[in-house]
Specification:
There is one protein chain. With 396 residues, the chain is an alpha+beta fold. The chain has 2 domains: 215 residues, Immunoglobulin-like; 141 residues, no CATH class. It contains 6 helices and 24 strands. The protein is globular and about 70 Å long. The two termini are 36 Å apart.
């Protein structure tokens, strides 16, 4: 669930549905999921059912016999979504730690919708238009990417306010979002949305499709904006933090003795800077801290430890993390340049679990402030997105 509270820097608490169960594989063959989809009531095969990995571009549809196959899945744990109009969606978590091929049979439950007791809202309905304007602001965001994003089927939305002024949004059909800034079409199954200043919360399931353009300059700009958006994302920060931890431990560069604490800190900060980040700790909430002198250096080795699985890390720290993205630390071309950004992270539940490879995090346990808190649907990147080699080469 995504919860946004707009207080000065902006408070952002997020749990993108099923996102954390996507874990990237490392040095193992990719997985395959195949199967068949039936009508649970009649036993007949169902064609044209959407089957996809939540939060990614990996998806397919069933054929006339209800058969489907997903190949080349680069994750060891995935959340599989099966969706079709007229049926209750199905969600399955699949693991590829041992068997790399899975065969699944789905028996979907038909659903019937009661006819609405009110008339359909007209396109000129002023109250609906006002509600939709607010919905777009809180759902898509208010930045560059959101300016070039639009909901293709807005009139599938049911929008109304409760007695206390809370905006509620519902949709029986997936929302189709065209993001012309990033070159993606997002199919978003909205499961909950409510908004009353200063708090907005929503959750749902996402699937990404690449837009097509014959114009090479348009495609190039999509790629550039994807890089910019990804580099400023929480997903990239988590992935970078994990990479630094893994690299330093693998090379035995973390120094354990107290006498070497300063040297260890210097090495740690140097590796973080390689990815464009500076990470510090602070006891002060974001709306109080206004200069660097109120924060202190932080060694990632002191806040991270190994989890249960190979790729899992546990983050545990007191107070706040101050995360600064400083693009000048990376020798990127001007086309990828971003302005400096400042964000804060607070642990809600004492600790959080993250995947060291995919950059996904148990985001129900964290709250973010600042630039991270401003991200919305228009800023979402697929979990299977990979930076171009020309960019990753700068991190060596």
């Amino acid at each position: 669930m995504k919860i946004v509270a707009q207080i000065l820097f902006g408070i952002f608490f997020i749990n993108l549905f099923l996102c954390f169960t996507v874990s990237a594989q490392k040095n193992i063959s990719n997985g395959v999921i195949s199967g068949k989809v039936y009508d649970g009531a009649t036993g007949d095969p169902i064609p044209n059912v959407n089957i996809f990995i939540s939060g990614t571009t990996i998806g397919t549809s069933s054929d006339l016999s209800g058969i489907f196959k997903l190949s080349d899945i680069p994750f060891e744990t995935v959340s599989l979504v099966v969706s079709c109009i007229g049926y209750k969606p199905e969600y399955r978590t699949q693991h590829f730690t041992k068997e790399k091929t899975k065969e699944i049979i789905f028996k979907m439950t038909p659903v019937t919708y009661d006819l609405p007791s009110v008339s359909v809202v007209g396109r000129e309905d002023k109250k609906w238009q006002e509600n939709f304007k607010l919905f777009q602001k809180e759902f898509l965001g208010e930045n560059y990417n959101s300016q070039y994003s639009r909901i293709i089927n807005p009139y599938d939305l049911e929008l109304y306010k409760t007695y206390d002024g809370t905006l509620i949004a519902k949709s029986k059909k997936p929302l189709i979002i065209e993001n012309s800034a990033l070159g993606y079409k997002i199919i978003y199954t909205l499961q909950e949305f409510s908004s009353k200043y200063p708090i907005t919360k929503f959750n749902g399931v996402t699937f990404f499709e690449n837009l097509f353009s014959e114009n090479e300059s348009v495609r190039d700009e999509w790629n550039r904006q994807r890089v910019r958006t990804y580099l400023s994302s929480l997903q990239y920060f988590i992935k970078s933090l994990s990479s630094v931890y893994k690299e330093l431990n693998k090379n035995a560069l973390y120094l354990s003795s107290a006498d070497d604490e300063d040297e260890s800190m210097t090495i740690n900060q140097k590796y973080l800077a390689k990815y464009g980040f500076e990470v510090r700790g602070t006891e002060y909430p974001p709306y109080i801290i206004n200069n660097r002198s109120r924060s202190y250096p932080l060694n990632t080795n002191s806040i991270l430890k190994e989890g249960i699985s190979e790729n899992e890390l546990v983050v545990d720290f007191n107070n706040y993390l101050l995360v600064q993205w400083i693009p000048d630390k990376i020798d990127l071309s001007e086309s990828f340049k971003l302005s400096e950004q400042k964000s804060f992270i607070l642990l809600e539940t004492g600790r959080a679990f993250m995947d060291a490879i995919s950059g996904s995090v148990d985001e129900a346990s964290i709250k973010t402030f600042g630039d991270f808190s401003k991200k919305r649907i228009a800023d979402l990147m697929p979990l299977d997105y990979v930076l171009p080699d020309s960019v990753t080469a700068k991190f060596k």
